[in-house]
Structure formats: structure tokens, C-alpha cells
Amino acid sequence: MTVDASRPGPVLNSEMYGAFFEDLNHAADGGLYAELVQNRSFEFDPIDNEDYHSLTAWSLVTRGGGIASIHTAQENPLSPNNPTYVVLDVTTPGTGAGLMNHGFNTGIAVQEGERYHFTFYCRCDDNGSRPVQIRLESQTEDLFAEALITVESGDWVQYKAVLTSSGTDTAARLVLLTTGTGRLHMDMVSLFPEKTFNERPGGLRKDIARLIAELKPGFMRFPGGCLVHDGSLDPEARNSMYRWKNTIGDVASRPSRRNNWSYNQSMGLGYYEYFQFCEDIGAAPLPVLPAAYNPHHGLEEPLDQLGPWIDDALDLIEFANGTTDTVWGAKRAELGHPEPFGLQYIAIGNEEVRQGYFDRYPYFQNAIREKHPEIKVICSSGPQPQGEDYETGWNYSRQFQADLVDEHYYALPSWFLSNWHRYDDFDRSGPKVFVGEYASWGNKFYNALAEAAYMTGLERNADVVKLTCYAPMLANIDYVNWRPNLIWFNNHQAFGSVNYYVQQMFSLNKGDVVLHSELALNPPSNEHTATEESIRGRIGVGTFRTSVKYMDFTISDNLAGTTYFSDSFQNHSLLWKIREGDWIAAAGGYVQSSTDLADCRSTVSADVSNHYTISVKGVKLDGEEGLRIIFGEQDRNNYYVWNYGGWINRLSTLRKCVDGTEATIIEIDQVSVETGREYALKVEVSGRHIRCYVDDVLIHDLIDPVSTIEPLYYTASKDYASGDIIIKAVNAQEDELEVQLTLEGVDRIGEIGKVIELSADSLDAENSFAAPQRVVPVSKDLTGLGKSFTYRFPGHSVTMLRLKTD
Fold first, then answer.
1. Separation in Å, CA 123 to CA 151, 170, 619, 710
2. What positions does the domain Alpha-L-arabinofuranosidase C-terminal occupy (predicted)?
3. Residue stretches of the chain with pLDDT short of 70
4. What residues contact residue 689 under an 8 Å CB cut-off, 6+ apart?
5. Is 472 found in the same domain as 584?
6. Nearest CA to 574 among 564, 585, 563?
7. Same structural domain for residues 90 and 209?
């Protein structure tokens, strides 16, 4: 390998490696937002989750013969934005009657000697006096802390107390008891640890925030994600799209919102807190705003009514950057931050690729550029790295001359290893690339290794790839909506996945400018290792929580025009192998009747060539999804599946499963399979070229290339502050690779450098609560250096060499 310091290449954006926050997996409430009380304002509702109600996470407590009841009401609310509150009716207090909050996960985590700040709003029906005892207890009623509050008003008043825990427990409860009779009304019951990130009252959970800060992210994208655009067009509706103005100001007046990941958002973590956190960790804020278009439900604000939506975008820029003599700059100052937040980027939409989005996007971009030309505006290219939708997104982005285009892809490790050169031939004159969401499907060492390999390619192309962030970032282990994730936590622990440490290694060792580097192989014929060949294996049909009747199943040879296999299902055939489901073949059809079972499939074996066609007719009988064709099935964990009507009957996806991990290769949305209608499905396989048809209409057309592993993935850069040359190398091969490193364009190399290495005892190794640092980078001095030296890169390793230069 030769690294030439006299040939600097692209400048590395100082903000290149960032973080992405979306409130899924309870990333905010029960996560980064340090509130310990779940459903503190009694606003949980079946709109959020069919199992929710206004007293979710709460229960009645009566002790010593007490007789009492609790219910919720809305007649005289603390805030009209959060109208629900709890009413405690005490007939006989006994030794205490009241209510208990169960917290998140196993309960409320408390530590011996730590202080906790309690607040709530309360009022009496009359102006009498009511004692309320605030207690932190174990599940067996052992007392950790207590305080006494006297409620003396018929009006809503906020009361406060500080509790110091005498013990440590991860399953504590907050209990509010009174020994008085009559009626108490309570709302916004809150408990925060005193030790929050940067010691902010009502702030962020310290351990999670610290892990994010230690990534040293150049930017943070927030608040989503699909969370941004999945909702109604009405800003006042509980299930509205994410509207930033509803998330600032007094937390008691922020309207509770349905989270599209099937839970509730208190909005305690809102836009002001996002900007504040970005400032605290030195990350540029990158907010994502809805484009007045919901792709999930086809909702579109009329073009002549986009004014309020565009105003929201302009007002947000003013809120972040405006002087204190502007309306929204003054609002920011009123909240405690007179200085601007320094907003540079704004994204309009998330993953949208349909005409409804592209009709609306330019109105936002034009308005922003007219008033704020300094702001870079980001357009979308959809959720996949290839295909018609992706190309449409890029074509429109070029037409609009967007500053950046937001690319998303979740893929198999093999995809990342095979796409090292993805951006080598990208158009350098058009919009730049923002990789706003990416991850390989898993948190094992091999996933992180593949991502690291791919990231060297991103860095080599820093003239076109300007911003990148792994996604998602946070997951509460007891409330998982999505896997994989960068950081995992419960109510008292948090740890970084192996993927986290890869992101951190690149962020901390980025450099300022890419240097020219070349690798010469010996022997030169060993360019890469192919990991798969033709698409062959069992072929069949399937369903997912859907009852389907299949008919006239045929597998034919494309070249010879002959038939390998044909079945009209007049009776049951022993050739069919049922993997899952209630299948029966009779009377000209093959029926899978269960609507409860997932991934039902039945396949046959056919000795096909490299060129074959699968044809079948299908009728959906009942259920939530559509039709499936399986092909190239080697076993239960290795196959291809075309899912027409997937993701609750709205997508057509072509997916590939390798070693039990399934990922989408290509997809289109706005697909719906009608119950009772007959569809003719066809899959043509020619080598690795796959075409999918419905009623002779081409739906998918792609080449799934042979997966390859390069002999070494690498890039080099120069850090001006330290003078270091940084060489990043990922050896994804099993064997150690000996490399002769030659540095050109430098006078001298220091005799001692530094090596930072990430490796593991197994490709399946991963960090966990029990072993949070099973796989972490190891740093050590590197000696015996010169302008030319030999280094052995271990098999399956991520290595960064920092070499001192004069």
C-alpha cells in the first residue's frame, strides 16, 4: 500500500459522521428523556396503542383498611392541551390511600444516596387541607424515601419535593398516599433524577446521553424517521404529523401525541431540548420536517394550502437562528437561550418518493432559499439504494438542485462488503449525498465489520458523500420496535453495540483531507473473493398472516421452452414440502388457510438451469397482507422471496435471506392486493437478473450481483491539528494480510505511532448487558516505524493507524 501525502484529495466534512435520533423503541420516554414516571399526565389513549387507557402504568393503593377509588376526568383540566387528570376519592383513608406508578421496564430504578426531584399538580374540591405522602418503595413496600406535601388549594398548584433514596433497586414504585378523606385531583406527576446530563433539571438520562456524546457526532438528525410524516394533516389532532411548535414551552401544555411506533409521546423531549442537546455535544442540528404529505396513507395537503406548512419551516429557522427581536428568536430567548443555535441544515420529508412529495417539496425549498440562502435543504430518494423509486428521487433532486439527497438503506452484510465502490462514479456536479439511515441487519461483530468496510468507501468519496449516520440509535430492550440499534438500554444500564464502536472509531479518527492511496496485490489476480453463485434451490409459494389460494403453478426453462414442474393442484402432491402453515391441495387450488401464522411456505425441488420462470395465479382469501413466491431456497435461512402486498398490504418487496437474516433488495409502495381478485404472478430468473411481473406488468427488474469480499478495504487521511496520517483498513477476510506500507510526500515518520484495533473471538460476538464491553477497540503504541514498514492486518479486523509526520 502506498499513501501519498503530497496528493490530497477531497476535504472531509467536519460533520461527516453523525447520529440519528428517532423516538422508536422508547428512545425518548423511558429512554433518553430522564422522566421516571410513565403516563405522567394520564393521557395514554387507545389511539396510541389499543391496549392503552388513561390509567396505564397506574394502580389504586389502599392500606390499613382504606377504602378509595380512582378515575380520570377532563372537566376542569390543568391545560386544554392535556385535558385528562386523575381523581382520587377517599372514603376511608385507613393508613393511607392513593395511587402508584409502575415506571418503565421492571419499574423505577433508584440508587442509594441519589436525589430525585418530584413534582405534581394537585387541587382539592374545597379549600381544605390534605396531606399527601410521596414515597419511593420496593415491590414489597420497603421504603427508600418519603416526603410530605400538604395540598391546600382548590386551584391547580404545582408542589415539589426532593427524595433521597436509602437503597438501590431497579423495580421501585412511586406511591402517593393521603390520610385525609374526600377528593383530590392530580396531574403531571413527575420524578426526575437530580443527576441528569449536564445537570439540567428535567433533562436527559446521563448514561445514555454520555454514550451519544462520546460518539463525537458532527451532527444529529431528529426527530425521525417515519415518525415525522406518519399522521393526519390536522396540527391539532392527537395523531397529527410531527409539528415542532407543539413540542416547545411548558411541558404541562405540550399536547400528548400518538407515536406511530404504537405508543405515546409525552413531548417532554421536544425541539428546544433537541437543539440544546446538539449544542451540548457539539453536533450540528439537522431537523426533519414533514412535507404536508403522508406516504403511508396517501394524505396530501392541497398545493394552495401549503402556506402554514412552509411557515412552520421558516419559523423553525427563525427559532433556531433568529435574533431576539424576531418573533421566534424572542421565543427561544424566553425559553432560556438568547444565543442562536446555528442551524445549517433542514430536511423536508423522510423516504418519500411519490409524486405527491415531489409536487410539494420545491415549494419548501424555494421559500427557504429565498429567505435563508445560507440553509442547506435536503431532499429524499426513498428507503432503498436502487430501483425505479430511487432513480426517481435522484432525478427530481437534480431537477430541484437540492443541496443534499437523503439516502437510506438497511441491507445484509454482504451488500455492504460488495458496495465499497458505490460512490466512486457518482456525479460530482450534482447534489451531494446524505446517508441519513443505514445499517446491516444485526449487532454482531460481522455486521460491524461489514459496515466499517463500507465506511472506508464513504470516506474515500468525501467530495460527494457529505453526511452519514447509522440508524436507529437507541433501543429500550423491553420495548423493541426495530432491530438492529446502535445503543441498547434498560431502566438502569446502557451499552454500545459493536456497531457503536465502529462509528466511534471513524468519528474520532476522521482527519481533515483524504490522501491518495493505492493497494497493489501480490499476486495481482486475487482481486476479491466471491461468496455465492447462481440463484438455485427450492421454489414455492407462501403467505404471511394471510389466507391465499394458489393455482396453476409452473416452473419452465426460459431457453429451451420446456417445463420443469407443473401442478394444477387437483390433489395433494408429495413433492410439496410444507415449512409452515395449514396447506391443502384439492379442486384445482392450493390453499393456506391460517391468518395467524407468519412466514408460511410450501416448496418443491426442481433441477433448474440458470434461466427459469416461475408462474402462478393467486387469490387472497382473508388476512392483512398479500401473495408470496419463494425461490433460490437452500434451506430455511437462505432464500429469496417476492412479497407482493407486504408490510400490511402496501409494498411489493423483493427480499433476500442469508444465514437467517432477511433484507429488502428492492421495493415499491402503493401496492394493495384485493381480497377475492385473481392475480397472475411471474418471476423470471436469468443468471442473477430477476424480473417480477403481475398480470404481465413488470414490477421489479434488477440484477442481484455476486457478493464479493475485497482483499482489504482502506482509506487514508491527514489530520492537520495533530499532523497525523491516519490509515483506516478493514480486513474482512479470514486470514491475516501482510502489507508493505509506503508513505510518500513526507519528510519523516515518527518512530512511535498508534494503532486502534477492533477484533473479536467470533464473527457472532456481540456486546450485551452481561458483557457490555465484550468487543471494544484496543489502542496500543506502534514502534519501529519509518517511511516504509510492514504491518500485518489480522483476519476479520478493523484497524486504524495514526502515524506522526513532520
1. 7, 31, 60, 69
2. 436-797
3. 127, 524-532
4. 702, 703
5. no
6. 585
7. no
Helices (H), 667-759: none
Q: How far is CA 733 from the centre of its chain?
A: 29
Q: Which residues are catalytic?
A: 351
How buried is residue 344: exposed, middle or buried, by Cβ count under 10 Å (0-12/13-18/19+)?
middle
Residue 50 included in any domain: no
Which residues fall within 8 angstroms of residue 166, CB to CB, at 6 or more apart?
112, 143, 144, 145
Whether the CA torsion 192, 287, 282, 474 is positive or negative: it is positive
CATH number of the structural domain spanning residue 602: 2.60.120
pLDDT at 128: 78
> For residues 260 and 230, is the Cβ–Cβ distance under 8 A?
yes
Q: How many helices (H) and strands (E) does the chain have?
A: 11, 52
Cα–Cα distances (Å) from 538 to 166, 535, 557, in that order, read 63, 10, 15
Q: What is the pLDDT of residues 124-141, one digit of tens each?
A: 987 678 999 999 999 999
Residue-level pLDDT at 524: 64
Indicate whether 764 belongs to any domain. yes
Length of the chain: 806
Calpha distance 289→380 (Å, rounded): 12
Write down the pTM of the prediction.
0.95
Is 131 a member of any domain? yes
Judge whether 484 and 441 are in contact, CB under 8 Å. yes
- Shared domain check, 393 and 501: yes
Q: Does the residue 29 lie in any domain?
A: no
Collect all residues with Cβ–Cβ distance below 8 Å to 366 and sequence separation of at least 6: none
Check whether residue 260 and residue 138 sit in a common domain. Answer: no
**CATH code of the domain covering residue 493:** 3.20.20.80
Burial label, 664 (beta-carbon count in 10 A; 0-12, 13-18, 19+): buried
Amino acid at site 757: E
Pairing mode, strands 651-658 and 661-669: antiparallel
Last residue within a domain, chosen from 703, 721, 753: 703
Same domain, 360 and 241: yes
Q: Are residues 266 and 160 in the same domain?
A: no
Q: 10 Å Cβ neighbour count for 629?
A: 25
469: phi > 0 → left, psi -120 to 50 → alpha, else beta; which?
Answer: beta
Number of domains into which the chain is organized? 4
C-alpha cell at 431: 447534489
Q: State which residues form the domain around 464.
A: 19-24+199-508
Distance CA 754, CA 317 (A): 43
Clarify whether residues 120 and 253 are in a common domain: no
Alpha helices in 291-431 (DSSP H): 307-321, 327-334, 355-371, 388-400, 413-418
Helices 307-321 & 355-371 angle (0-180, nearest 10) = 40
Sheet of 487-489, strand order: 474-476, 487-489, 494-496
Domain check: are 346 and 238 in the same one? yes
Last residue of a domain, one of 195, 227, 254: 195
